[in-house]
Amino acid sequence: MVFGGQGGARHGDGGRLGVSAGLRTTGFAGPACARVPGAGRGCIGLPAHGFGRGGCGVGPVTLGLYSMEGRMALYCIGDIQGCADALARLLDRIGFSASRDTVYLLGDLVNRGPDSAAVLRRCMGSGDAIRCLLGNHDLHLLAVAHGARKPSRRDTLGAVLDAPDRDALLDWVRQQPLARAHEHAGQSLLMVHAGVLPAWSAADTLALAQEVHAVLRSAELPAFVHAMYGNAPERWSDGLAGTERLRVIVNALTRLRFCSAGGAMDFDCSESASAAPPGLMPWFDVPGRRTAGTLTAFGHWSTLGWIERSDLLGLDTGCVWGGCLSAVRFGATLAQRERLQVRCVQALAPR
Q: For residue range 66-85, what is the model confidence (pLDDT) as tens digits?
């Protein structure tokens, strides 16, 4: 079966996408951090100073000397992976109000943690206040549900697949996009689970994500998840069509960590950014990438941990591995940011 085509409508939660001006690096990275097992070795980058006791956001953290108390707030939260208790505690900690606030979850809502179904029900019950996008584990759930993949020994998807409301949970998942955008104080925030290929602009990213989103929501879903997996093609071409085109989009948005300067993706290495194999670099360090200058928030990379630059936010701090579940709260502009975290019970041991 041939899926999709070329082009596609733009998708997002805001209007135009432009360059976010006036952002600043706030120096979250530090030499002292908690070592948390993940997909590879390394440190998840949780400083032991400056962010409350234990380096995990226990206590207030304020940057730019602003207060959001009682006001509408905008948040992004990293990979949850079925850790429903951690999500509930983090939402309590930030004082989340569904009638007032907007929270974006950056994918990998499910799997490996103890209660994926509860995470999905929390999202479904919050309406438009919690806005989600899909990661590789969320797509894996759909693939398992449609018989395209067998559950692995480390999967914890049974609470969803055996739930009395299974059909409603799976239908909600398939309605979620692979990328989102939000306009805040005239600035643009782009959100994906894993990465963005260097040849794509923010507008390209949203349009290409919409192509996959359209298939996920259609009657083609079962056939698509059977054809979705694979590492080829390794790079983007505007001339790609059908399954190969959609596979590259899925791989970039939900699996990407390292690529070459020419945009060839690598899926063998999941180490930290400092351990890049020869000829490869983190996707966000590729010279000339077209999303440079647009603030991009992502998760997926627990061995990278928290990373913050003027135009980049990495929020996967290894919750399922016993690290933290992390949120960023934006202030009056996207440059004003607070990091808020809760410690997580280790749900998954390293191999």
A: 445 557 899 999 999 999 99
Q: What is the pTM of this model?
A: 0.84
Closest CA to 143 of 256, 222, 230: 222
**Is there a contact between 228 and 6 (Cβ–Cβ < 8 Å)?**
no
The Cα–Cα gap between 235 and 115 comes to 36
Tokens 């398939």, residue located = 174
Q: Pick from 65, 83, 139: which is nearest to 326 by CA?
A: 83
- pLDDT tens per residue across span 223-237: 999 999 999 999 999
Closest among 145, 78, 57 to 298, alpha carbons compared: 78
Nearest to 214 by CA among 248, 244, 171, 175: 175
